[in-house]
Design goal:
This protein is mainly β.
């Protein structure tokens, strides 16, 4: 992993001594803010955090030793509540349930309580419903429920695993068959959005070549996603793309082949934040940010973050001044 920061520099990036050239490329000018005395709060192996983008200050919203599902943390439209999935009362997939919590750390609430695998929650635009995945039959399907957990019902079953859902307006986007699809909230209008070359072809990675983790922009017109472009690495080599919801205008934002993804839009629609989990065979789990056209791509992880803190699922605050993320303390 990474050498621990010793307080002798003020870089905005956790430094990896095996990649000095990459460090200089991504972080050429250290910020002037003194960060020697800053620390990351730690209560349990998992936590939900807030990172202030101007000050680099971090605060803990919620800490637990129970495993938080690290691929989905979503902020509601009002900007005052987060939804996530967490294991309770055991370590099997069937123990994963969906929760909400206020961005101030109050009001933790369990929404599902059953023997199914419930995961990957996403708010509707008006905050009245939550779409989520559940393994209630032979495969993962898309369900919806009220924001209080009531009225759980099936929205869509493709006949195989559906995954990686997001919703805005009256649209739900998701992954099925290693491609991105969209459907309306009333279950009509199923449309394939992407058609990646060699989709479904397996290699050494834990997923086949294809497109994953779509996220809709604030105007519901464009989707950002990661594409597994090379399966030679066990981590998988991904790049980040955007595409219009009608399947036109595909654009490649990165061309590094890092293990990267779980991208989310700013509420202004001009920035994208995402995670770089690995570069080649070296673990990273840092948060990166870039403009919506792929320019000004850089690591935003403060240097005082310890190497055993892994960052997952970053999302912007309502005013785009902060990042919420799931932190996992590696043991």
């Amino acid at each position: 992993m990474y050498n621990e920061y010793d307080g002798s520099e003020t870089s905005n990036c956790r430094i990896n001594d095996g990649m000095p050239d990459l460090y200089q490329q991504l972080c050429p000018v250290p910020p002037s803010t003194n960060i020697k005395d800053k620390t990351v709060p730690h209560e349990g192996q998992y936590g939900i955090y807030t990172l202030d983008l101007a000050s680099n200050d971090v605060s803990l919203i919620y800490g637990t030793d129970k495993e938080i599902y690290t691929s989905a943390l979503r902020l509601n439209g009002r900007g005052d509540m987060l939804v996530f999935a967490q294991k309770v009362d055991g370590n099997a997939n069937e123990n994963v349930e969906i929760f909400t919590i206020g961005t101030d750390g109050t009001g933790l609430r369990r929404l599902t309580n059953n023997n199914y695998w419930d995961l990957y929650p996403a708010w509707t635009a008006d905050d009245t419903k939550i779409a989520f995945l559940s393994l209630r039959n032979k495969d993962l399907d898309i369900y919806t429920m009220g924001a209080d957990g009531s009225g759980q019902s099936l929205l869509f079953d493709s006949g195989s695993h559906d995954a990686d859902i997001d919703s805005k307006g009256d649209i739900v986007v998701f992954t099925s068959g290693s491609a991105i699809w969209r459907i309306k909230y009333d279950g009509t209008g199923l449309t394939r959005v992407t058609s990646p070359k060699n989709a479904g072809q397996w290699g050494s990675a834990n997923l086949p070549i294809g497109d994953y983790d779509p996220r809709l922009n604030p105007s519901d017109t464009k989707v950002v996603f990661e594409r597994l472009v090379n399966t030679d690495s066990v981590h998988g080599n991904y790049d980040i793309f955007t595409i219009n919801v009608d399947g036109s205008g595909e654009s490649r934002l990165t061309n590094t082949g890092y293990s990267q993804g779980l991208a989310s839009w700013s509420h202004a629609g001009d920035k994208i934040v995402y995670v770089v989990a690995a570069i080649n065979d070296q673990g990273k789990y840092d948060a990166y940010m870039m403009n919506a056209d792929g320019t000004d791509n850089h690591d935003i992880t403060p240097a005082y973050f310890p190497p055993d803190l892994l960052i997952h699922s970053p999302v912007f605050s309502k005013d785009d001044s902060k990042i919420y993320f799931i932190g996992q303390w590696w043991e």
